[in-house]
């Protein structure tokens, strides 16, 4: 997969925002490896206050616990880059916001930090509607740090579109 350009991310953000507005949803983001990039893309769109509630960038274990309610046992047993953690992140984002739909991301953007079982480019993305069940998907992106992060933002937004369909 080729990393999306700024123009492609802008187009995805605009389309997602239009859909959120039409369905009267408010979005919250919980981001680790993207450091707020999803929230930035969404709020770059004029009128985003009509469908964007807030975003949380939580890199450390402590921040994931304090801001998103991720359990210490989850982080100890499965690590930050896991299905279990992203599910707790996306659920916690809804609990700690006024939003109706959430997206969460956690992964290894590189260049370091990877391991044999979780190489650089491994990213978990989770989506959840208030009152619904979380959905999570793992991705294995290629490229440098910027490319992994761009692909993560695009995957998160595409997944939101699918949740809103």
From TrEMBL:
Gene3D superfamilies: CinA-like. Residues 11-163 form the CinA C-terminal domain. SUPFAM superfamilies: CinA-like (SSF142433). InterPro entries: CinA-like_C, CinA_C. It comes from the Bacteria. Pfam families: CinA (PF02464). NCBIfam families: PncC_domain. This is CinA family protein. It comes from Thermomonas fusca.
